[in-house]
Amino acid sequence: MAAKFEIYEDAAGKYRFRLKAANGEEVASGQAYETKAAAVKGTEAVKRAAQDAELKDLTEGN
């Protein structure tokens, strides 16, 4: 099973997404959106941004 995004409605009636790993563990979640379409666009933005994302270790030098 591959990783997947899930769209859901929270207790306040807002739409959110979460990213689940292949093992079913939640590895990321998104902010609250007013519409389901906006939440879907949020998942697409994460996919685009993650393609070339670098890891910046903010603990270095501490």
Automatic annotation (TrEMBL):
Q: Which Pfam families match?
A: DUF1508
Its name, as the record gives it, is DUF1508 domain-containing protein
Native source species = Corynebacterium jeddahense
* Chain coiled-coil ranges: none
Domain annotation DUF1508: ranges: 10-57
Q: Which domain of life is it from?
A: Bacteria
- InterPro entries linked: DUF1508, UPF0339_domain, YegP-like_sf
